Input
Amino acid sequence: MNGGLYSVYFLFIIIIILVMSAKRRRTAAAVHMKLKRKKGGKIQMTELVKKFIGKEVIIYTMNSSAEQISGTIGEISGDWITVENMNGGQEIINLEYVTRIREYPRNKNGKKKSIITD
Output
């Protein structure tokens, strides 16, 4: 009987941690957007993204449905970037929701890493 009670407590604690983590992520995203607008981040971000044109990158966004987008950056127009996916499709991403861009990691032989840990 005690084993079942402990598993219920454990499950309850895990759910609370997940809810708090999601809330913290949303709050951090809101603060990020506020600071970015205040400092004129749009101009800086477009200049930084221009360094990655034609390279395979991983783009981290604040969107809850797709937090990572990987592909090759095609072009930048205004606040939007065009990304060609690995499967040949294209995505258009608003730079206001981008929190991080990094070049696709490769191993010492130059091959793309299959497991990416952040």
About this structure: The chain has two domains: 1-39, 40-103.
